[in-house]
Structures are given as structure tokens and as C-alpha cells.
Amino acid sequence: MSYPLTRVLTLLELLQANVRLTGTELAGRLDTDVRTVRRYIAHLRDLGIPVEAERGRHGGYRLARGYRMPPLVLSNDEALAVVLGLLAAERLGMGTAAPAGAGALVKIERVLPHTLREPLAAMRETLSFTADAVIGQAPGTGVLLALAQASRTRTTVGIRHRSWRDEDTERDIDPYGVVFHTGRWYVVGNDHLRDGLRTFRIDRIASVTPRAGHFTVPDGFDPAVHLTSTLAKGEYRWEVEVTVHGPLDEIARRLPRSVVTLTAQPTGVLVRGRAERLDGMAHMLASLEWPFTIHRPDELRHALQNLADQLAEAARRPSSP
């Protein structure tokens, strides 16, 4: 039987903060009933936490005398690393349940000594980012952890997945790896239903069930490389091929691999990609410092000409008095 982890942990904090609480008081604090509180208490005991029950008029629940959860002891560098990690995860859209990061920060700051708490709070309140925050698609915590564990142990799992067309399917997959990319979590692996490599957004996976089978990841397989290559070849209206006459390593730093694939050639770098609209591709190419040659489609030339006309018009526009 599974238990709401947040409520069980809240119950533990209530017991640590109070000498004694009745079942009715705990039920009120947790917004549940006394019978459920008893199940949460039993779960804490199964975890080895000594919760005592006292009967009678003044009875209730309490932690065993002298028992306290061990304090969180972190050095300045360790505490800063944890706080920065939580802030960065929120900024990058890497979080799972929305309040989890904020709750973790509050708990960490509460148990740290004052000499560490105040500087870290100042860091949290004054830190600025040059990059815009990413609005992530948060997956279920249990689903994400189950996929990571299955990938580590090379265990086949069954998933319930909803496609972007809102079609629900159940299938078995061999999860080769979990990848975070631009605000979304993905799992890459062998799909038994389609008998081939597939990529699934984890926020669209409703459940994960372990299977008896095991698998082996192909030698040299890189889930992140496969993901970015797959996204670059997505189903879009236009197929684009352009040779950029510049160095591969510099071009690779300027063009996102989620949008294009790059192939070194004697005359430069062949850039292949797909786009729903060509004006965005025109802006991307115009931002490069190297000349380029368009192979297809011809409509991309018109998009570039439109962009050039807009820029020329802006250059001729007189300034306001």
C-alpha cells in the first residue's frame, strides 16, 4: 500500500515539534480522519521511527523520549551548492511537483545554523539570471524515479502513455536513459510495441510498472544525442538544407542541436533541419557571421528577402524628434 509521502513527512514534523498530539488533533492538521492517521503512524513505525501511543484522557501520540531526527550538518560550500542547485532547477524548469523546490529550500534554511541561514537567504533573494526562466512540463515524481531506476538496473517496464493526439496506449519499453531538454523530461529506449527506438515525454506517462525482463543498451548509444537528433527531424512543414561556409565547432555553438543536424563538408557545414515557419529559420541564419548557400526550399530565399526588406526599412526610418 502506498502513502502520500508529503502527509507522512508532515506528520513526522508535527510529532517532532509537539510533546503530544491526539489522533483527532493530527487528523485536523493533516486534513484527514483518525483512521488514516493510524495508518500513517504505522508507516512511520515500519520505517524504524519510534512513535509511542498513550491511551486515556490525556493520551495521544509522541516520539519516544530522547529521539530526535539527526540535524542537517552542511559546510558553507555544501549548503551553497544545495541552494544554488534548487534555484537553478527551478529556473531551468527541471522541477517535478511545483511546491517541492520551495518546500525543500524552507526546510533546509530552517535547520541550518543562523550563520549559514542568513547569507543563503540573501543569496536566494538577490540572485539574478541572464537567461529567461523556462516553464517546464513537470512529470510525476514517482514516474520519473521509476524510469531512472529501471534505466540503471536495465529492467523492462510497462508504461501507460498519452500521445500529443490524446491517444492512450499501454506498452513495454527498455529505458536506455532519462534526458532533460529545454524544460521537458524524456525517456529514450526500445519500444516493444513498435519494435524500435522511441522517445517519450515523461509528463505524458501516467504510470510505470516493472516487468520481469532485462535488456542491454547498445554499445556507444547516447540518449541525449539520440533525443536531439530525433527532435531535429520532427514532422514539420518545411525541410531545410543550407551550407554554412564556416568552422564546424563555431557553428555548432551557435545553432541548437534540437533544431538542426550538422555535417562537415569540404566547402563548409551542411545544415539540415525542419521548420513549421521559415521566418524563424531566416532569423537564425541571418544571425550567423558566415556566408551561406541555400539548397532548399526556394521559399527560404523569399523569407530572407522579407527579413532584409524589414531591416532596410528600419535603417531608413527617421528617428523621432
UniProtKB/TrEMBL annotation:
<dbReference type="InterPro" id="IPR036390">
    <property type="entry name" value="WH_DNA-bd_sf"/>
</dbReference>
<dbReference type="InterPro" id="IPR051534">
    <property type="entry name" value="CBASS_pafABC_assoc_protein"/>
</dbReference>
<dbReference type="InterPro" id="IPR013196">
    <property type="entry name" value="HTH_11"/>
</dbReference>
<dbReference type="InterPro" id="IPR028349">
    <property type="entry name" value="PafC-like"/>
</dbReference>
<feature type="domain" description="WCX">
    <location>
        <begin position="237"/>
        <end position="312"/>
    </location>
</feature>
<dbReference type="Pfam" id="PF25583">
    <property type="entry name" value="WCX"/>
</dbReference>
<dbReference type="InterPro" id="IPR036388">
    <property type="entry name" value="WH-like_DNA-bd_sf"/>
</dbReference>
<dbReference type="InterPro" id="IPR026881">
    <property type="entry name" value="WYL_dom"/>
</dbReference>
<feature type="domain" description="Helix-turn-helix type 11">
    <location>
        <begin position="7"/>
        <end position="62"/>
    </location>
</feature>
<dbReference type="Pfam" id="PF08279">
    <property type="entry name" value="HTH_11"/>
</dbReference>
<dbReference type="InterPro" id="IPR057727">
    <property type="entry name" value="WCX_dom"/>
</dbReference>
<dbReference type="Pfam" id="PF13280">
    <property type="entry name" value="WYL"/>
</dbReference>
<feature type="domain" description="WYL">
    <location>
        <begin position="143"/>
        <end position="209"/>
    </location>
</feature>
<protein>
    <submittedName>
        <fullName>Transcriptional regulator</fullName>
    </submittedName>
</protein>
